[in-house]
Amino acid sequence: MIVVAGEALIDLSPTQINGQLAYIPHPGGSPYNVAVGVGRLGAPVRFLGRISSDGFGQLLRAHIRQSGVDLEYVVEGPELTTLALVTPTEGGEFFSFYCQNTADTLLRPQDLPAALPPGAALHLGSISLLLEPTASTLAGLLAREAGQRLISLDPNVRPFLIPDKAAYLRKLEGWLSQVDLVKVSQADLEWLYPGQRVEEIAAEWKSQGPALVIVTQGGRGAFAWREEELLRVAAPKVTVADTVGAGDAFMGALLAWLWRADALSRAALEALSSEQVRELLGFAAQVAAITCTRPGADPPWQQEVA
């Protein structure tokens, strides 16, 4: 079982309809997308978060349920759904968030389950670790569960929502000692540590606690840092529709692969051979590449990857 905790929101993506600019709603939010990706790849997954009772919230529930995700840990709220306006730029998609007092930002400690299933992995990340009170609630969950189960983290940095970069970086580096697997993009690392080599940052992060640090590099592929060993894979060549959700699809694929390999524990993750880590990266890169061939965060189903 994999428990994914965090935000659920609506991405408003631009398109042209009869020559007019329009925005199409797509279910999204990084942890939400990860849960959808895991479910579509056939691994047991449960989403933990707060979803609005409004029309967008109903869309979010229906979409994630259809993707095979268990909603036992979902709390319903009367507030509006967070909206993320997606604007394409030369450097990739830029996100503007409308998230003041929205449902997914108001998760409180009393909304958390008293205990997670034995042996379940836990995944966290993205803006749910920035916006209060959800951020403190999930930080408390991370502290409670650290050392009890495999925990993965994808910071999925959104500079637009980070008024104090130094304070955010201190928090992020503090989380590293509590997690076992980190996935981060090269773009995130370049914003966090301008001018530093991403390989050196990955090695430094690895020394702070995680068993495995994985860095995605878009069309260049990805690499993993583990015990003084750097392992790389190339990205499959595809025709890109957009890159929304590609990193989340990569993360979901990592977790689904580890579940199938019976490696959802710190010890099992550390015991993976170099060849297995390359296989893990290659599978995740394939899943992310398929996601890039269609608009919105729309990760593939298991039969598409097979």
Automatic annotation (TrEMBL):
InterPro entries membership: Carboh/pur_kinase_PfkB_CS (IPR002173), PfkB_Carbo_kinase (IPR050306), PfkB_dom (IPR011611), Ribokinase-like (IPR029056)
One Pfam family this sequence matches: PfkB
Keyword terms, alphabetized: ATP-binding, Kinase, Nucleotide-binding, Transferase
Domain Carbohydrate kinase PfkB: 2-301
Domain of life of the native organism: Bacteria
Recorded GO MF terms: ATP binding; kinase activity
Gene3D superfamilies: 3.40.1190.20
Family per record: Belongs to the carbohydrate kinase PfkB family.
Name of the protein this chain belongs to: PfkB domain protein
